[in-house]
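for the writeup, i need someone to sanity check this before i put it in the appendix. the sequnce is what the collaborator sent (i think, or maybe the updated version? ugh). structure was predicted straight from it, no edits. if anything looks off just tell me and ill rerun, i have time this weekend
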Amino acid sequence: MASGPFAAKVRDATRQAVTGMYQHSAYKPKKIWPPDFSKLSPKDQFRLEKRYKRRVKLATARPRWDKFVRLAQLGSVTFVLIYSVLFMDWNTEKQPFEGIRSVFWGGLEAFSSEKRDERQQPDIPTTSSRK
């Protein structure tokens, strides 16, 4: 933590303001804030820092924003991967994802209008059993 003459002056100024503020109050502060770290044991310093970090983390938590950022990152990475695999021209002799592309576009081709007519006409010859 900060130490030195400047920190001591700030601490003293704060202490005077706090004591002056609570002069006529029925509820006096239990501790002087900020504490003098030079007078605290390392164990107490660690406890205070741990408590402060936990409180800062809770105070600065923005779950909705974090969720939005996570979803935006996921969407952009997914878009780049799909674009690079299915659409990107790699300017090479042999395309690295040609097998994946042919399987994907072949699967989508089954839904085309040309294939729709084939699906409507059965492959099995009809047999009529008229006697």
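The radius of gyration is 36 Å. The chain has five helices and no strands.
thx in advance!!
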